[in-house]
Every structure is written in C-alpha cells, then in structure tokens.
Amino acid sequence: MRCQRYLWFVVILCLLSACAGLDTRPTAQTAFEQGLALFDQGRYAEALPHFQQATELDPNFTRAFLYLGRAYLNLGRWFDAVPPLRTALRLAPQDTRQEIMSILVDALLGAATSKLKQGDLSSSITWLKEVLTLQPQSTQVIQQLVQTLLQYGGELMAQGRLVDAIAAYREATRLAPQQLEGYLGLARALLQQRELGSALSAVKEALHLAPTNLDALSLLRQIQAR
User: Fold this and answer.
1) What pTM was computed for the model?
2) One domain, residues 102 and 169
C-alpha cells in the first residue's frame, strides 16, 4: 500500500515537472539578452525581432526600446529608429536621458537629411524642429533649419504660395535675426503679396545688416515705386 502511494506521488511529481517544462515562453529579459548578443556581433537585423519582443513583453523596458532604436539606427533606418528612441527617452531616469537624447538626435538628423535629399523640404523642417526642441542652443541645428526654411520659402514662392512662403521666411528671420537672406526673401514675398508696409520693414532690416547690398536697394526702389 505504501509502495503504491509512493508510486502515485512520483507520478504526480513527474506530471507537475512536465507541465512546468511546457511553459517555454521567453521573458522580456531573455528576449533582450538574445537581441543584445546579436547586436554586439553587429547582426543588427537579426537582433531587431528580439528587441521588439522584449518591448512587447514589457512596455516599460527602457533598454529594450533603446537598443531597438540603436539597431534601426545602425541599419540606416532613421524613421524606424525614432519611435522606440522617443519611448526610451520618455521612460529613462534622469541620469541616462542625455545619452539617449544624443542617440535620438542622430536619428532625427538622419531622417531630416534623408527627406532633404528627397526634396521633401516640409518634412525635413518638421524633423529639424524636433531636434531643436531637444537641443535649443545648437548653432549647427539652427543654421541647418534656417537654410532649409530659406530654401523652402523660395520653393513656395515659385509655386505661388505666398502666405506659406512669408511664414517660412518669418520663421527664418526669427531664428537667425542676423541672416540677410531671410529678410530679402521675406521682402520679396511681401512685395508680391502687395503688403508694402511690411515689405518696406523687411527691406529696412536687410539694409541695417548690409547698407550697400544691391538686392536690398533694388527691392527698396521697387517698393517706393508702388
């Protein structure tokens, strides 16, 4: 009788062990470590699904979002890299935010440059503006944004979209008040829009920066002749 009970006890233990072994679902940490091993070998594309799985299993797993973004970034997939890096930055404790912010900026600049090469100036400006919210004192970012705004203003004028062109030039002059080209573009757009008073103000700003500039003097004569 005792032997029979012992056998039943052994059978139950075996069944419990077997059931436990059936649950082979990975944890977020396991998935992350698998991805990290591949990432460290430079196998970024293979690491992606592991990092993705880790973020799905644990929506607060900061490092999983960070490395998901880094893997996309290393593959040159700027637009895919941005969302997980944004999430990583939002989840990160204060002492690690600067490092993550720097990586996110790289992704945003990559996206902005990609759109610029495609001729999509509007989207490039949107990405650059996000960079500026993260690095508001960056002279390099401001200069890049201003140049893109000036180019976009010219494109809008060529399309006859004067109101939008004026807005682009105004933003350029606000970001770079010492930039002559912004005031010249603004004056031209305002002149075409027949806003002579505002056009004259823009020309005066341009002449204040460059009193002998021929384009500014020519615009001044055109306004005075109206």
Assistant:
1) 0.83
2) no
